[in-house]
Design goal:
Elements lengths: L14 H10 L6 H12 L4 E2 H8 L3 H13 L3 E4 L7 E4 L6 E5 L4 E5 L1 H15 L10 E3 L2 H4 L10 E3 L4 E3 L7 E2 L5 E2 L1
Parallel strand pairs: 4-6
Antiparallel strand pairs: 1-3, 2-3, 4-5, 5-7, 7-8, 9-10
Helix pairs in contact: 3-4
Length: 182
């Protein structure tokens, strides 16, 4: 499900601004909806509905309903990386597109401008205007192509239901949802 074609693109830096916009649109802010919004604001990377449900101790169907409504309101979008579940992220000031290595699961965020030459080539050759905001470009990263082991640190990485960054060798990060990240 994507935002309705006429839904405005809403970008907020603060949770309370998003809450106000939601209420101004006539939508109610249930406790579950607030928890989902808080978790999305606390996490700086896309996350799955199942992971949100586990970390928030909410029914997964409730989380999906709230994510769908928030997406319809233009507050968030969902993306697909590789073969994992759909992930959800708040809409940012600029679209982010992703490259996904299907060998090591490295995730590389890129700006749409960086992929414009690829889009132009597809437009010229096939007459299509490609979008990569919903589905990542899947392939093999340079390290895997060279058959080198992936270097821990300095890249985003996916375990299917969440994207996180490695901080460096031996360092770990715990997300705001309390899940262990390494």
């Amino acid at each position: 499900m994507t935002a309705a074609p006429d839904a405005p693109r809403l970008v907020f830096d603060e949770l309370e601004d998003a809450v106000k916009a939601l209420r101004d649109s006539g939508r109610r802010l249930s406790a579950a909806r607030r928890l989902v919004l808080e978790a999305l604001f606390a996490d700086d990377a896309p996350v799955s509905a199942a992971r949100l449900a586990r970390s928030l101790s909410l029914d997964e169907s409730s989380v999906y309903r709230n994510l769908e409504l928030l997406e319809q309101q233009g507050l968030l979008r969902h993306i697909h990386l590789g073969h994992g579940p759909g992930l959800y992220a708040l809409v940012g000031p600029e679209d982010v597109e992703y490259l996904y290595c299907d060998r090591c699961t490295k995730v590389t965020p890129v700006t749409p401008a960086q992929l414009e030459p690829v889009r132009e080539q597809i437009r010229a050759q096939f007459g299509y205007t490609a979008r990569f905001t919903h589905f990542a470009i899947v392939g093999v990263c340079a390290d895997c192509a060279a058959d080198k082991p992936s270097v821990p640190g300095g890249h985003l990485h996916s375990h299917g239901d969440v994207v996180h960054s490695h901080l460096g060798a031996g360092e770990h990060q715990h997300s705001a949802t309390g899940e262990h990240q390494h």
